[in-house]
Amino acid sequence: MRKLPPLASLRAFEAAARHSSFKRAAEELAVTPTAVSHQIRQLEERLGVRLFERHARQVVATDAAMELYPVLRDGFDAFARAVEALSDRRARRSLTLSATSAFAARWLVPRISSFRRAHPGLDLRLHASDEPVRLEGRDIDAAIRYGRGPYPGLVALPLAADRFAPVCSPTLRLRRRADLGRWPLLHFEWRHRRADNPTWRRWLEQAGVRDVRPDSGVVFTDESHAIQAALAGQGVALLSLLLVAPDLRSGALVQPFGPELEGYRYHLVHAPDSPRRAELAALGAWLQAEMDGDGNLASAARGSRRARHAGSA
Asked: What torsion do the CA atoms of 168, 173, 176, 181 make, to the nearest 10 degrees?
């Protein structure tokens, strides 16, 4: 157990020693000079040493005071920094956003710096989960849901509609659908089995490719692993063009041909009684702008690819 003098006496002494004045210390502490003098007198009696030589127009710190002062000064400075840090943390706005592991890793994480530039006063915390999370409490503020909706009991902001197409590493030199059978097909398991899932079976039927088995190749339980396999040149994957947009822009992946399949739509959802409506509106506007930008770039890339094919026909 610490045996310390009263905090008021220590504060009065530290201020008086820093200013070399009882009067200025009193102004800082919003008390009278007499009160400062009284607190210091009590401290001197407690310590059994004289801390100031008192003169008519000034006070002079003794050797004992000069020994005590730096310790108290550094201690009060540390207190002030800790209190300020806690106050700043409480004052900062924050949101916790849940998304699937693939969307968080492939789309959100690369754009964290963009969000911070757009909203420097809003902290974004990411929660990755492939299972839908409950939004009725206050641990998770919002979630990215992928589907056709509706989402009963939640406010849902439509974001981008997704599209799927074959993509692969440029090292495969794949250019024609007729050559698709030369490489393994890369699949990932959908959480829900639906007839309208954009799968290789649907793509092969729509593309009119009949000499490739739709269930052949390698199956991954996680979409991110299928993307990594495609980047490593392990085969051709039917992937979300939104999630691989940065890789298509950089040339790490290519989309050698169509057609493209319609996927589902991303939605930002949150509880209707959320206390962070302004923050959620800012997040929604940023998500829409970023996804619109990806869509415009993807459209430009498709137009450029069609022009190259037309020129080589």
From this structure: -70
pTM for the full model?
Answer: 0.64
Q: Is 98:143 a contact under the CB 8 Å cutoff?
A: yes
* Residue 36, Cβ density class (10 Å: 0-12 exposed, 13-18 middle, ≥19 buried): buried
Q: Which residues pair with 101 in a beta bridge?
A: none
Rounded to whole angstroms, the Cα distance separating 297 from 267 reads 21
pLDDT score recorded for residue 268: 95
Q: Indicate the CATH number of 94-312 among 3.80.30.20, 3.40.50.720, 3.40.190.10, 3.40.190.290.
A: 3.40.190.290
pLDDT of residue 155: 93
pLDDT of residue 309: 40
Provide the 8-state DSSP code for 254.
Answer: B
- Which of 207, 139, 146 is closest to 179 using CA atoms? 207
